[in-house]
Structures are given as structure tokens and as C-alpha cells.
């Protein structure tokens, strides 16, 4: 059975010179490792790509939650599934046919995620939920870690949660950006059940303890979706 609450630390806030150690520090505490792939086209920032994911995959057993902030996800996303990513999430704004790409990812053995950036409405995508495993709602503008959480994004989380509950779908609702001890409960109350946290985990003295605290705060606030 999958855990009720997913905590996914983002290695965007980790020390890139010691990535395997940084992932080792959350082993046993994190549910997923969130990997932010940026191409300096879809977002104005450049991070890591497929070779790093392929190498890091061998360094841990924690499932990889790959967040592709790239143009042309059709070209690159399947490679991350083949590299062993558990979830491959691409942006709605960058993809012409999200259902086709989701099917390709599922056929390659990964879960398919659809990400919605700050300035995008979820409304046009609600009909696609049966084909998607995870909806990632940005609670910042995609592109950089360490930004301030935007509570106004939670209306999108509520909209997706309502549709998921009404149709009894098995879709994770993930929030990404500014998730920390003072924001995670609001996101959980709105209906999120997967939480990306970069700065709040890797900026802490004890990343594993930070994850445990975030999980406790989220679970105390989670409504029942039954
Ligand atoms: O997708 C992202 C940025 O576009 C990151 O996952 C996000 O910023 C996480 O970092 P933090 O918790 O520091 O906000
Ligand atoms: Fe992310």
C-alpha cells in the first residue's frame, strides 16, 4: 500500500558536489527524492539532466520523482523513465498532448505526472485526470528554489481534490515550492498528499528530522478523502 503522505525532498537545495551523500542523508525518512530538471528554455535556470539521474539512481533505493521543467518533454521524458524514475512529471504548458505522453511514460514503467505552473489554470486539465498518476501544483513560479509559498495556489489543489474525490480517481496531488513547517498544513488541508520540500529539508541541520516534522504536520492536517 502506498503511504498516506509523501514527503519528497528536492535536491535542488542540496550540495551538488556531494549528491550521493545528500541523498543518503534522507534514506529511511523520505518517500521520494525530487529531482528538478531545468533547461534554461522552459524556465530561466539550468540544473541537471539525464546523466546525473542515471548515476544517482545507482546510489539510492529511494524512488525518484523527476520534475521536468523543460521544453519538448516528449523528446526527453521517456529517457528518465528508462533510467528508473518512479514518477516523471512534465509541464502542461510545455506539452501538446499530455495524454499521449502520459501513456508513453506508463508504458515505459513510470508513473506519469502533470505539472501546472503558477500562471496556469487547472480547469482545462481536469478531464485528463484518469490518464495521470500525479498532478503537481506549483505553489511558486517554477524555476528557482527558496521562493515564498503562494497560498492563493491552493484553490487549484482544492479543485483537483474535488474532481479526484468525485470520480474516485487514484491521483496524487503534489505541491511544490515554499513548502515548510509553516506552510505544509495549509496545503494538506486543501487536499495535497505529496509535498516537495527543498530548502526546508536541505537547509535544516538534520534533514531526516526535518522530514519527520513535516510529515507529522501534514498528517495532523490531512482531511479524510474517503
Ligand atoms: O520545482 C522547483 C522550483 O521550480 C523546486 O522543486 C522547488 O523550488 C523546491 O524548493 P523549495 O522547497 O526551496 O521551494
Ligand atoms: Fe520541483
TrEMBL record:
<comment type="pathway">
    <text>Carbohydrate degradation.</text>
</comment>
<dbReference type="InterPro" id="IPR026019">
    <property type="entry name" value="Ribul_P_3_epim"/>
</dbReference>
<feature type="binding site">
    <location>
        <begin position="176"/>
        <end position="178"/>
    </location>
    <ligand>
        <name>substrate</name>
    </ligand>
</feature>
<comment type="function">
    <text>Catalyzes the reversible epimerization of D-ribulose 5-phosphate to D-xylulose 5-phosphate.</text>
</comment>
<feature type="binding site">
    <location>
        <position position="176"/>
    </location>
    <ligand>
        <name>a divalent metal cation</name>
    </ligand>
</feature>
<comment type="similarity">
    <text>Belongs to the ribulose-phosphate 3-epimerase family.</text>
</comment>
<feature type="binding site">
    <location>
        <position position="34"/>
    </location>
    <ligand>
        <name>a divalent metal cation</name>
    </ligand>
</feature>
<keyword id="KW-0119">Carbohydrate metabolism</keyword>
<protein>
    <recommendedName>
        <fullName>Ribulose-phosphate 3-epimerase</fullName>
        <ecNumber>5.1.3.1</ecNumber>
    </recommendedName>
</protein>
<feature type="binding site">
    <location>
        <position position="67"/>
    </location>
    <ligand>
        <name>a divalent metal cation</name>
    </ligand>
</feature>
<dbReference type="Pfam" id="PF00834">
    <property type="entry name" value="Ribul_P_3_epim"/>
</dbReference>
<feature type="active site" description="Proton acceptor">
    <location>
        <position position="36"/>
    </location>
</feature>
<dbReference type="InterPro" id="IPR000056">
    <property type="entry name" value="Ribul_P_3_epim-like"/>
</dbReference>
<feature type="binding site">
    <location>
        <begin position="143"/>
        <end position="146"/>
    </location>
    <ligand>
        <name>substrate</name>
    </ligand>
</feature>
<keyword id="KW-0479">Metal-binding</keyword>
<feature type="binding site">
    <location>
        <position position="67"/>
    </location>
    <ligand>
        <name>substrate</name>
    </ligand>
</feature>
<feature type="binding site">
    <location>
        <position position="10"/>
    </location>
    <ligand>
        <name>substrate</name>
    </ligand>
</feature>
<feature type="binding site">
    <location>
        <position position="36"/>
    </location>
    <ligand>
        <name>a divalent metal cation</name>
    </ligand>
</feature>
<feature type="active site" description="Proton donor">
    <location>
        <position position="176"/>
    </location>
</feature>
<dbReference type="InterPro" id="IPR013785">
    <property type="entry name" value="Aldolase_TIM"/>
</dbReference>
<dbReference type="InterPro" id="IPR011060">
    <property type="entry name" value="RibuloseP-bd_barrel"/>
</dbReference>
<keyword id="KW-0413">Isomerase</keyword>
Amino acid at each position: 500500500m502506498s503511504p498516506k503522505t509523501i514527503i519528497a525532498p528536492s535536491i535542488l537545495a542540496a550540495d551538488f558536489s556531494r549528491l550521493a551523500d545528500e541523498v543518503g542523508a534522507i534514506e529511511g525518512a523520505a518517500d521520494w527524492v525530487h529531482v528538478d530538471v531545468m533547461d534554461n528554455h522552459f524556465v530561466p535556470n539550468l540544473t541537471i539532466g539525464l546523466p546525473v539521474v542515471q548515476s544517482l539512481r545507482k546510489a539510492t533505493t529511494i524512488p525518484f520523482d523527476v520534475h521536468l521543467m523543460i521544453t519538448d518533454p516528449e523528446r526527453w521524458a521517456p529517457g528518465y523513465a528508462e533510467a528508473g524514475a518512479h514518477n516523471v512529471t512534465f509541464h502542461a504548458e510545455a506539452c501538446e498532448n499530455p495524454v499521449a505522453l502520459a501513456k508513453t511514460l506508463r508504458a515505459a514503467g513510470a508513473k506519469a505526472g502533470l505539472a501546472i505552473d503558477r500562471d496556469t489554470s487547472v480547469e482545462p486539465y481536469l478531464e485528463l485526470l484518469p490518464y495521470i498518476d500525479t498532478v503537481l501544483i506549483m505553489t511558486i513560479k517554477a524555476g528557482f528554489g527558496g521562493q515564498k509559498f503562494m497560498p492563493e495556489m491552493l484553490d487549484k489543489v482544492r479543485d483537483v481534490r474535488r474532481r479526484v474525490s468525485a470520480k474516485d480517481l487514484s491521483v496524487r496531488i503534489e505541491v511544490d515550492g515554499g513548502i515548510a513547517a509553516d506552510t505544509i498544513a495549509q496545503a494538506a488541508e486543501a487536499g495535497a498528499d505529496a509535498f516537495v520540500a527543498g530548502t526546508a529539508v536541505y537547509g535544516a541541520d538534520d534533514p531526516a528530522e526535518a522530514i519527520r516534522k513535516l510529515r507529522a504536520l501534514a498528517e495532523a492536517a490531512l482531511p479524510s478523502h474517503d
